[in-house]
Write a structure and sequence with these properties.
Layout: E1 4-7, H1 19-25, H2 32-49, H3 56-70, H4 77-84, H5 96-105, E2 109-114, H6 122-128, E3 136-139, H7 150-160, E4 167-171, H8 174-182, E5 186-190, E6 206-208, H9 211-219
Parallel strand pairs: 1-2, 1-4, 2-3, 4-5, 5-6
Helix pairs in contact: 2-3, 5-9
Length: 228
């Protein structure tokens, strides 16, 4: 049983595939999105490991500029902004809204916690119809530690006023699940692509194909009672 569901945002809630159009529009191959996003996470994790911090957009912009230069394209603010602004127009995965509605109706509090900017997803959540389900939209800029550092998850617990053992993180990223579990939360693995979960990480408490399946797991057999 949980009281609070913590949601990762990028890729977990949002479909990042349309960002490939932005990369292609500025002269980069569509597959460069994957290396760029992985590098942004890598550098954020690396800074957190040495007790330093930079925000997502700062790292993302610098790495995008590096990709452009490597491709022989002169970077400028307009080009970088054109690509990064695509985050504000991403669609939600189709299972997100119906799944979160059922979880919300079951009386479970729902928040988001992102390594990116909470403001960046505001329009996405409004268009996707899930804003009414979200109690808080949190970002790691406040604790100055990227997930999977335990300080990020504990910050979410402090904001919610809930014990970590009554919280669970849902994400498509095993590293996020592992970090949440080590911080005392439960881990809920959203496995849309049927990707094997790494054995080196702490195992998730629940594996669900999508948020509709997760809603069934969280609300079945009286495991959750509606808020009184």
């Amino acid at each position: 049983m949980i009281d609070v569901l913590v949601l990762d945002v990028n890729e977990t809630l949002t479909d990042m595939e349309p960002l490939r159009d932005g990369f292609e529009a500025v002269g980069l191959p569509r597959h460069s999105l994957d290396a760029w996003f992985a590098a942004t996470l890598r550098d954020g994790f690396a800074l957190t490991a040495v007790d330093a911090y930079a925000d997502f957009r700062e790292l993302a912009a610098e790495l995008l500029e590096a990709q452009l230069i490597a491709a022989g394209i002169e970077p400028n603010d307009e080009t970088v902004t054109r690509v990064l602004s695509g985050f504000t127009r991403l669609p939600l995965h189709p299972d997100v809204a119906p799944g979160l509605r059922r979880i919300h109706e079951a009386g479970i509090r729902i928040i988001t916690l992102t390594n990116g900017s909470a403001a960046m997803s505001k329009e996405v959540f409004e268009k996707g119809g899930i804003m009414p389900f979200l109690e808080h939209r949190l970002e790691v800029a406040t604790p100055q530690r990227w997930k999977p550092h335990p300080a990020a998850y504990r910050y979410a617990a402090e904001v919610c006023g809930a014990p970590v053992e009554r919280m669970a993180l849902a994400a498509v990223h095993p590293w996020d699940i592992d970090g949440a579990r080590r911080a005392g939360l439960q881990g809920l693995y959203i496995d849309r692509r049927k990707t094997p979960y790494p054995k080196s990480f702490l195992a998730p408490d629940v594996v669900a194909a999508d948020f509709e399946a997760l809603a069934t797991e969280l609300t079945a057999d009286g495991l959750q009672e509606k808020a009184k």
